[in-house]
Amino acid sequence: MEDQKRKAPLAVLGKYKYVLLVAALGAVLLLWPSGKKPAAAPAEEEPVRTGVDVAETEAAMEEILGKIGGVGRVDVMLTLQSGGEKVLAQDSSLRYSGNVQSPDSYERSTRPVTEEGGVVVTRETYPQYRGALVVCEGGGNDAVRLQVVSAVSALTGLGSDRIAVVKWQGASAAQE
């Protein structure tokens, strides 16, 4: 009986010997050094603020909204959720002194990657707006309000729940 207990694991081993051999070979290949040097780290990226100016955007919106029929005089105020930025490609270098495994000191330097036309931009994001307030002479008229909300939404990506259109103080009742 004791002899059978010893042979049972060997029988299982004999039955799955090829599967175990392939698994062992795979493990050896995974651990085998390839001889390749590690790939160089990709160039670092550094965010830079974009040239998008909220005041210029507000002025442009005031000009275009003033051309909508029934709006009249208009003032626009935009609030930002986050500002825009450009991420520039960076070329970095590392210099060290002393032993390679444990250097005494090292110096790291980065500079933007440039081409003929200027710096290389890897990613650009534009400002995200939090809300908009539009004060206009025609703000008391529902049709005008709907047109203004639609226009501001198209220009900023804001939903209608984040855009307030109100009547200009002292605007005449004839414009309603």
Describe the structure.
Strands 1, 3, 4 and 7 form a four-stranded antiparallel β-sheet that branches. A three-stranded mixed β-sheet has the order 2-8-9, with helices on one face. Helices cover 32% and strands 35% of the residues. It contains four helices and nine strands; from the N terminus they run ααβαβββββββαβ. By secondary structure, the protein is α+β, with helices and mostly antiparallel strands. Residues 37-44 have low confidence and may be disordered. A hairpin with a 2-residue loop joins β5 (114-115) and β6 (118-119). The protein has helices at residues 2-15, 17-31, 54-65, 142-156; strands at 45-49, 74-82, 85-98, 103-112, 114-115, 118-119, 121-125, 128-136, 163-167.
Which terms would index this structure?
176 residues, alpha+beta, 4-stranded antiparallel sheet, 3-stranded mixed sheet, 4 helices, 9 strands
SS class: alpha+beta
Shape: elongated
Nearest-integer average pLDDT:
78
Q: Segments where pLDDT lies below 50 for 5+ residues?
A: 37-44
Q: Brief overview, please?
A:
With 176 residues, the chain is of the alpha+beta class. It is built from 4 helices and 9 strands, in the order ααβαβββββββαβ.
Helices and strands in order:
Elements: H1 2-15, H2 17-31, E1 45-49, H3 54-65, E2 74-82, E3 85-98, E4 103-112, E5 114-115, E6 118-119, E7 121-125, E8 128-136, H4 142-156, E9 163-167
Parallel strand pairs: 8-9
Antiparallel strand pairs: 1-3, 2-8, 3-4, 3-7, 5-6
